[in-house]
Design a protein that fits this description.
There is one protein chain. The protein is α/β, with parallel strands linked by helices. Helix 2 (about 45-55) packs across helix 3 and helix 3 crosses helix 4 (about 75-85). Strands 1, 2, 3, 4, 5 and 6 form a 6-stranded mixed sheet that branches. It folds into 2 domains: about 10-85, no CATH class; about 105-245, no CATH class. It has 9 helices and 6 strands; from the N terminus they run H-H-H-H-H-E-E-E-E-H-H-E-H-H-E. It is globular. The chain starts with about 20 loop residues before the first helix and ends in an 8-residue tail after the last strand.
């Protein structure tokens, strides 16, 4: 007998009773976040719900067209929701921080983990795409790279979740030669080049100072740990950091 289907609880070692109310819990989760997908004139939250359902119920082919078909939505509308809709991620990030702080047992022991994530791209007509280090592939490749913060807390029931993030735009993207590409891809005119370390510090400030997330430690690898500038800002903000550093770095 073959393995249970992807959507059968037995495949994951769960009793059937454990999944009876997962649909209701998903809808409750969506309700907490749906305001983040609304603008003054549009409510795209229904597409956010469809996107979540598609990601969770499909074993393969998790792309816009297939998610739209599986959830009974227009492929064009689903694609527009993810690529052109004017909703902003900030409201979602703020809600994540509020949810983390809601349970009393998470008031202590919180850890922020600063890292980057790269996505290989087939073409360079993507904001920030350039031949650059792709840590996931372990080589320089045409990629988009984003900096992000994860949150972890192991003091009671283990919790890991995404916090916030931002796209790294290489300096070459702000030259006159790429002005047309910036306009076509709707890169904001006010955006200026920032190093990965500067983006990382902005994300930490956003989580801790703007959203009020209480954490005890900020962790990062040597890409960030070699920066005396970042370590100094964390020290001035009374934040404890645990960092990897290159073996030839003096601290």
């Amino acid at each position: 007998m073959g393995a249970p289907a992807m959507n059968q609880p037995a495949r994951w070692g769960m009793p059937l009773e454990a999944v009876h109310h997962l649909g209701d819990r998903l809808r409750e989760y969506w309700n907490r976040y749906r305001a983040g997908f609304k603008t003054k004139t549009r409510d795209g939250s229904a597409y956010a719900y469809a996107y979540l359902r598609g990601q969770l119920r499909m074993a393969t082919g998790r792309h816009f067209a297939n998610i739209a078909r599986q959830t009974g939505n227009s492929e064009q509308n689903m694609h527009h929701f993810m690529t052109n809709s004017p909703w902003r991620g900030e409201g979602i990030y703020r809600q994540i921080a509020e949810d983390i702080q809601a349970p009393p047992m998470l008031r202590r022991g919180g850890v922020l983990i600063l890292d980057e994530s790269a996505e290989e791209k087939a073409g360079d007509h993507r904001a920030g795409a350039q031949k650059q280090q792709n840590g996931r592939l372990g080589k320089v490749e045409l990629s988009q790279v984003g900096g992000g913060l994860a949150y972890a807390n192991l003091t009671s029931s283990p919790v890991w979740t995404w916090g916030t993030g931002d796209l790294f735009m290489p300096e070459a993207w702000f030259t006159d030669e790429l002005a047309v590409e910036r306009r076509e891809l709707e890169v904001p005119d006010e955006l200026r080049f920032r190093t990965k370390v500067e983006i990382g510090w902005e994300l930490i400030q956003q989580e801790v100072q703007e959203y009020g997330l209480e954490v005890e430690v900020v962790c990062f690898d040597a890409l960030y740990g070699r920066s005396a500038w970042l370590r100094g800002h964390l020290r001035d903000a009374s934040l404890i950091s645990l960092a990897d550093i290159p073996c030839d770095t003096s601290v």
